[in-house]
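Tutorial, part two.
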Amino acid sequence: MSAASPRASALAQAAAGLFGFCWAGAWGLWQVMPPGRLGWMTQGDWSPPLFGWLFARANGFSLPVGQAPGLLHPFGSSLAFTDGIPWVGGLASLLGFALPEAFQYFGLWLVSCFVLQGVVGARVALRLTPDPWTAGLLGCLCALAPVLPARMGHLSLCAQWVVLAAVGLHLVELDGARAARRVALAGLGLLAFSCGVHLYLAAMTALVVLALLVRLALLERTRGLAERFGVLLAVPVVALAALWLAGFFTGPKAALGAEGFGDFSANLLTLVDPSAYSRYFGALPSLPRQGEGYGYLGVGVLALLAAHLVLLAVQRPVTRAAVLGGLPLAVAALLAFAYALSFRVTAGTRVVADLSSLYAPLSFLTDKLRSSGRFVWVLDAALTVLALGVVARFGARRWLARVVALVAVALQLGEVNFSLGPFHAPQPELATLQSPEWQLLRGNYQHLALHPVNLQWVCRYEAQAVVRLSYLAYQLGLSINSGHVGRVPVDLRCEQHLAAAELDPQTVYFPLDRGFLTELQQAGEVCGALEGGVACVSGERATPFRTVLERSPVP
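Running the prediction step on this input gives:
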């Protein structure tokens, strides 16, 4: 198959990327692109990456990257355990001296994921067809993947283009050992990148890259067997090194496991279940919490996939080399899907199999990767690429390939229910504490502490208080004892009561109810009202901020 010219290939990828950019705008994402807009990130699961980044920035560049000792003090946290995209945050922290105080990179990241989904889709399609017009349209189809907007609540998980790119490497034609090495290095590079984005993406990419290296070992015969399969060791080596550098192995002793394996799963119907995404079809039955396993392909991709399977059945049989080359990816995709289903295999709302005994020895893994349903994305990517491959069946009839690709894009685009998007409504501005008296904390105190500790999903959590005080701590270069993180220190106590001897004179305490306020007052703290809340400081230190509190005492 003759390839498209470099210029035509670049234009096809650029067109698909531009379509992805416009598609992001259709979901309302342009309004969150400005780096100075932080208000939208103070809501829900967008809060952890924001404050992970802000406190990592306050700490400066570090190795491993993204350490945030000021968040959840005295335990600390990191970009890795706040879904803060360590590679991007680490690079941004290097430039922190030149960035404004109110700065976030997550809006740009989110839009870039839509762009790269289109670019990568077109690049993969160019390995299936020499026609840049068809490839560009198929790239647009990839940008329309329903699973992408479905993950906007977890920003780092929107980098599904990494899995698609890794799957696409399985299509690269090998013309010798040098080409095989290039493909292997590209796969390992994607793996290293994914390790600095999100642990789940790293696990999926590792599986696909491992399958890629097996494929290369099977097809590339110029080296010995031991040398060809020995390269498989590069996968754990690269993954472990990249995960360490990204900060996944550092920090306090923490409870990494959590409940949810078996609940946050995929359904056997997930590939054809649009949930509320489609205007053409209604949602199929599923169990609560199976949204994590959302894997709907979209009506356009499903149509292409069905057409390709029919053509495979009626046209000439697939060659042995093609089967051998595709087998490792097929095995990897099916293994990922099996894990996505979890031990409780469901079809609709009915449990069809219980594999508890099979998964029991793997609890060390399932506790860490409890949202197993996400692994359906490997099968999603593999089936999407298989669907795109239908255009290779049209041979020289480029006009037919273009028409088919255009119809698929129209079908996929036409079914979207935009009412699901969280960004169509105007996003809030950042609400901060404005009283000038807060500036008196700078240089006189080191820590802010909500009393009791506030930690989402684990302890009491008053979001507004945590957000406002966390941003104040960031502004003043202080630490805070509360937050929303993914790694909970095992020594953390939610309702810990403090004796007088345990109070720190360098800490400003914020009691959240009368009982804790009384406790602090009885321990000798000076408490006063300020900007709608109550703050308490040591009565043993004469500071300007203590004087402010004494002017507004709390009975």
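The chain has two domains: 6-35+107-420, 436-551. In part three we will examine how such features are distributed along the chain.
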